[in-house]
Amino acid sequence: MKIEEFSLERIQSLYENTVELNLSDSGVHPYSLNELLDADERAKLMDVELGYGWTNGAVELREDIAKLYRNRSSDEVIVTNGSAEANFLLVMSLIEPGDEIVVFVPNYLQIFGWARALGATVKAVQLREELGWTPDLDEARKVLSPRTKLMSICNPNNPTGSLLSRAAMDELVAIARAQGCYLHADEVYKGSELDAEEAPSFADLYEKAIVTNGLSKAMALPGLRIGWLAGPAAEIYAAWQSKDYTSITTGALSEHVARIAIQPTRRAQILQRSKTILRENLALLTAWVAENSELFFFVPPRAGGMAFLRYGNSMNSTALVHRLREERGIMVVPGDAYGLDGYIRVGIGTPHAHLAEGLERLSDYFKSQPR
Ligand SMILES: Cc1ncc(COP(=O)(O)O)c(C=O)c1O
Questions:
Q1: For 15, which of 111, 138, 206, 264 is 20 to 30 Å away at the CA?
Q2: Cα of 364 from ligand 1 centre, angstroms
Q3: Could you tell me which residues come within 8 angstroms of residue 249 by beta carbon, excluding any fewer than 6 positions away?
Q4: Which atom of ligand 1 lies closest to the CA of 8?
Q5: Ligand 1 center to 96 CA (angstroms)
Q6: How far is the CA of 27 from the centre of ligand 1 (A)?
Q7: How many Å apart are CA 91 and CA 85, to the nearest integer?
Q8: The domain 7-32+267-368 belongs to what CATH superfamily?
Q9: Which residues surround ligand 1 with Cβ inside 6 Å?
């Protein structure tokens, strides 16, 4: 099986740890254990038994995750190594060669790439910038066929930070239900909504929804590598069977800390920290775009740790990203990685001073270029 390069991840893997100012992350500046846990909790870490545990995730952790949804049991949840493994297991257990799937793009392109590698037909429906990076659902209706097995959306969206309205969510569910297909939603940015209440989960709206989530983005704990799938028990069981062939289980220490993090009060505190960081940084970015309006345009993100900026010269975005890194010591993600040249993705979950310095270098670079 041949798989195309996951260029979004590859370019970050190569440079994010060596560049001076990394603005390529999509999440929120991570917690340390010291910041997250109190003294008692830290002491108790020493007693965690480093066994395999349940390969689909500790029962108590699955129960706690199930409580994030309405009427879900622990059998409808599998814990994974990051939401990346959740997406991987979903594709491996559900998609077969010849299946047809519909993916709303731009999107974190993991499902897109894996499904194609497996021999599925992947149809894309564009999110429209003029609609605040949301889809025209009539376009989805048009591409669906009786062979469509699954629709996949990232909500809140990577890379644009857009958010579906409740009406659009209901409409999408109605489309999936009429078709009888699965609806997959990657909801790893859920909980970081900046101007709205936390959006409902598709898992609470549709019996054939399967959702990906985890602690890496809105929850600012990417190093735990804890993600999950929630959905119908049979499909979750099938994903567990695929997990036997991949990582077997998640780490016992990570599961222990994850349980602490998702208790309702702690989860609310973590999300509040994320929103405070993101709101302050979004205000900075908005002011900077206004000052540089001849160079940049953006639809402000409504959730998540990133903004998707259109820039006003004809340089290819990948070439631009390499120049910025080599000449100015800053790293952003090229729109190319999403098939959208002429854009860059800028992380807004970093410490404020870091973002301020990065943006200054970015506008300085553009001002130095012939237009
Ligand atoms: C939408 C989305 N899903 C999944 C992932 C994978 O994240 P992780 O495995 O760290 O949870 C990412 C990472 O950027 C993402 O943006």
A1: 111
A2: 31
A3: 52, 53, 54, 55, 57, 243
A4: 14
A5: 23
A6: 9
A7: 10
A8: Aspartate Aminotransferase, domain 1 (3.90.1150.10)
A9: 26, 82-84, 87, 108, 154, 158, 186, 188, 214, 216, 222, 227
For the chain, which residues make up each domain, given as ranges?
7-32+267-368, 40-263
* DSSP classification of residue 21: E
State pLDDT tens for residues 169-208. 999 999 999 999 999 999 999 999 999 999 899 999 999 9
3-state secondary structure of 308: strand
| CA–CA gap between residue 260 and residue 57 (Å, rounded) | 15
How far does Cα 121 stand from its chain's mean position? 23
Closest alpha carbon to 299 in 53, 133, 118: 133
CA–CA separation, 78 vs 46, rounded Å?
26
143 C-alpha to center of ligand 1: Å?
A: 26
Written as six digits, the tokens of 121 are 């037909």
Q: Is 248 helix (H, G, I), strand (E, B) or coil?
A: coil
Q: Whose CA is nearest to atom 2 of ligand 1?
A: 108
91, 184, 217: which to mutate for ligand 1, most atoms within 8 A of CB?
Answer: 217
CATH architecture group of domain 40-263: 3-Layer(aba) Sandwich (3.40)
- Per residue of the chain (371 residues), what is the pLDDT tens digit? 889 999 888 999 998 899 999 999 999 999 999 999 999 999 999 999 999 999 999 999 999 999 999 999 999 999 999 999 999 999 999 999 999 999 999 999 999 999 999 999 999 999 999 999 999 999 999 999 999 999 999 999 999 999 999 999 999 999 999 999 999 999 999 999 999 999 899 999 999 999 999 999 999 999 999 999 999 999 999 999 999 999 999 999 999 999 999 999 999 999 999 999 999 999 999 999 999 999 999 999 999 999 999 999 899 999 999 999 999 999 999 999 999 999 999 999 999 999 999 999 999 999 998 76
Q: Which of 114, 158, 228 for mutating ligand 1's site (highest number of atoms within 8 Å of CB)?
A: 158
Determine if the pTM surpasses 0.90.
yes
